[in-house]
Design brief:
Blueprint (H helix, E strand, L loop, with lengths): L3 E10 L3 E10 L10 E5 L17 H7 L3 E5 L19 H19 L4 E6 L1 H12 L7 E5 L12 H21 L1 E2 L1 H4 L6 E2 H13 L21 E6 L8 H8 L5 E6 L16 H4 L4 H17 L11
Parallel strand pairs: 3-4, 3-5, 5-6, 6-9, 9-10
Antiparallel strand pairs: 1-2, 2-4, 7-8
Helix pairs in contact: 2-3, 4-6
Length: about 325
Amino acid sequence: MHTVVTTPIDLVGHGNWPLHGTLCEPSTGLGAQSPGLVVAGHAMMVDHRTLWRPDRRCLGNTLIEHGFSLLLPDQRGHGGSVDTAHAKAPWSYDDLVEDVGLWWQKAQAIAAGRPIYWLGHSLWGHVSLAYFGSHAARLPSAFVAIAVNVWGRQFEPSALIFMAQRLLMAGADGLVQLVGRMPARALRIGPCDESATYWRDLSGFARSNRWQSRQGLDYADNLRNVTMPTLVVVSDGDRWLTRPESAMSFAARIPKSQVLRLGRSAPAELAGLSPDHMGLVTSSTSEPIWRWIAGWLTAANAIGLGDAGPSPRP
């Protein structure tokens, strides 16, 4: 692995909420020859360590080895983006969407004219798409959406699966109401508990079949404004949280989306790989997938992003 230079990044969100991130750059000093900056964000109940750690093979290090700089936000209420004063403070889905705008502004300052790319696993993917769809003048050069979907009938082709999702959410809602948060740590499903306010928003999307802000802004409809080339990565092994059929229904609303489906229709070099939801970014067996993604972004940089998006260069 290449030597990486890291710099802590601190921002302040509304409500004086501390937002922390880490900037990782190759130590080779590529400067203007660097293919650009990738802003890479994590799923719910976890933090940026699912994408980058200095001591292991990971998606983040794969991108760095391809010359990219990497900005890794911890989302509000996760990892370094919480302090004692906010340890039990609530946050909403819309708060996370608004925070994307702060990270976009910071990325522009860091990139200093270089291309900015966006990569989102699960939660960071859809809150980022919600933001960019509502701010079409602020779009990265390309977007990688890994296991990104929002539960709701409008995106779920199977009525039976949707009914099961509703039942699961109803049970989770009861637990959240009882405990006052989604207790991920106690349940051993992640290191970061989720705010009850955020959880009610997420559950509300499924109940109402509307992915929208509290003010009624239709995030789903605004996906038509997300006009940058977008690579959508789904896996047949992700059988529940982000089913390929649901994610592809979601992605169909993005004008320039290109789907990489792992499993039955994967490219030959990725045959036999179909990791689950978290395994897409945490399992060492997914390294060929990470190289494929890095190749797609490298090709995007090399050709200046044509309308159809780049072909991969693993």
